[in-house]
């Protein structure tokens, strides 16, 4: 842990009454690392350094701290400094902070903001968590339609300090509607006297504030932008989403899908921040549901109790056969759920997917049938059981392939997250139906009635 | 599919001999969309438009096409045009193209490049696929230590057209070593007469070319950069990695982890690009391995054949109990594998992880024991089996929690991708050991010998 070492070093420097030295060391770090160091310091030292730092440096650092820590620091500073820091922080961080606080605490902080800024923050705060609007920041650079390139560049120089991303200048009309976008590169390379309307492009790719945050991620990924404008339903510019926030979204969405595929409800926080009772709650629902679903394997087995007691050897292969079915299903489901998530596959492809999975399943089933034959032989259960187990292995693999090819696509179509068809889900489904297959095959092939 | 419609529209325009109109329509699209449209066109129309497009527009478009399509286009153009396009494309795309081609085809294309550029491409081509170096592009903006801000800005204006990212200017010394970085924003806001050494920061965060690409992703995500410099072991600047390539890496790594967790070897290509025989090969290995591992459930069952034939009712609960163990394991494993991948958990946390999972497992196990008791009662297997099944449920859940907490951490420590501890893997492991637990509990509680 480098941050802990840095923090010790800075604490020592402070103890030696060399505040200037401590500040210089901090200033040399990247904002992320600086925040880590602050998080490791004693509260009193932390406050002392935040007070002594230039406002922009302090604000930049605060952005990387957790909301609770941000509040604890802001709450202990004098109001003018705290207000200045809050205004210098990027607006998406401020929104996250305000949403994480108790309403009374949030109201206190909001009272420090100038009313125009507060209104814009209020607008951003209305967008629910999974929307594009919730990711937006208002620190973008906007220019007016009638300006020249030189005017736009002068504007960048004036407001660029506060902007989160200066790669693009968004051109709006008199009613605030987004009509054009130009990259800073295009502005610098253009003739300064040219009208702004001669630079950049008119068909701006933007996302509606109410759209899903995944839609924003999809657009940014597809077009390789660094920032994406967010507009309301009248195409008025509300803010921008920056690529670093999208990277976080991509990480979070993948985490959620993996946890769902593992058969649990996604955790809202990171692993260690999730208390044990919450871990329990996120898991117990599916575990019980699957238990109830799996319970009908008992019903199937009792239904075939007679056959089972006449040929006890059949029981030896129960875990092996249903396990193989579950494994096949888990392989297919995970591949397809991911392909759906990244848009490689859609519902309209269902027939193609089914054909591919059945073809793959036939190959896999044949191999598993051969393996089952070998296993029956080595277990020495007599010559009759081998073919039963082999035929069942083929059928179960085919059955699992079919179910796990169709279900995720169907759920996607019904706008249910296909990741709820987890490995455990498909295993459970295949277990009961697989047992039914097994004993039916046994009944027919062994001529039992 | 919007691209298909656009393509039809453009084909019609071309048929009406309005090449200029078709070009204008194409130019208005984003590069990604333009490439999609080209991919939908007839080869002859495609070539005609590429020939008529301005070089920079054509190169930008080509970058979004697949290597095979890129080659098919370049191969049909006159050498001067093809060479110009190749040089205008970003170097990481050229490297990917050259690596995807047959060596003779690659040699033909390489011969068109100026020798200095060819040498730098050759250097980039030496880095293996999963390294940071393999993602690097040489279209960055470098400035010399001795320059002023004005000189640097003039240089940006001169070479900015070719750069992939103009957000940063990298300052190198006379030996090519990376000594400083300044953002374009800092340059624009600075006094033009100031020395370059007064702008930006000296401690540049960079990644070694030989480092894992995940390390580059981690750094970019952590520090919210738009591009990351890539250096050799003497800190000489080799290239930069841009955030859009990192976004692709993050997507790909998540896909690989999900496929591994589902119990298959990750696919190298997207789902529909993977032929059925390859799907089969990626899955059959684990399926057979798990089959062999699962086969010992047969051995365990045969070992307890005597007990099983005396109390056939025990068999009814086999799928239910081992299924619940597998589900618990799958939940834990997926959560931990992801936490390891994003760096939330490391091997040093193993004791904390184990404690948390055992605590969660105790809660879950208690609930599942109660559920098992209910199920035994509803299945009407007599009053003796209920307690056996309940106690086993608790033990199996605890056992699964323990194994799935420790194994991923251990593998991570041994530098094996923890995602190989897939859901199917942990289910299989828990199946055999769980059966052993079950019959041992039955033996003890039912006093069978």
UniProtKB/TrEMBL annotation, chains A, B:
Domain CBS: from-to ranges: 200-256
GO molecular function: magnesium ion transmembrane transporter activity; metal ion binding
InterPro entries in the cross-refs: CBS_dom (IPR000644), CBS_dom_sf (IPR046342), Mg_transptr_MgtE_intracell_dom (IPR006668), MgtE_N_sf (IPR038076), MgtE_transporter (IPR006669), SLC41_membr_dom (IPR006667), SLC41_membr_dom_sf (IPR036739)
Membrane-crossing residue ranges in chain numbering: 358-377, 389-411, 423-446
Keywords, ordered alphabetically: CBS domain, Cell membrane, Magnesium, Membrane, Metal-binding, Transmembrane, Transmembrane helix, Transport
SUPFAM superfamilies: CBS-domain pair, MgtE membrane domain-like, MgtE N-terminal domain-like
Principal location listed in the UniProt entry: membrane
Name of one Pfam family that matches: MgtE_N
Protein family (similarity comment): Belongs to the SLC41A transporter family.
Subunit structure: Homodimer.
Function: Acts as a magnesium transporter.
NCBIfam families referenced in this protein's UniProt entry, alphabetically: mgtE (TIGR00400)
Full protein name: Magnesium transporter MgtE
Organism per entry: Thermaerobacter marianensis (strain ATCC 700841 / DSM 12885 / JCM 10246 / 7p75a)
Lineage: Bacteria, Bacillati, Bacillota, Clostridia, Eubacteriales
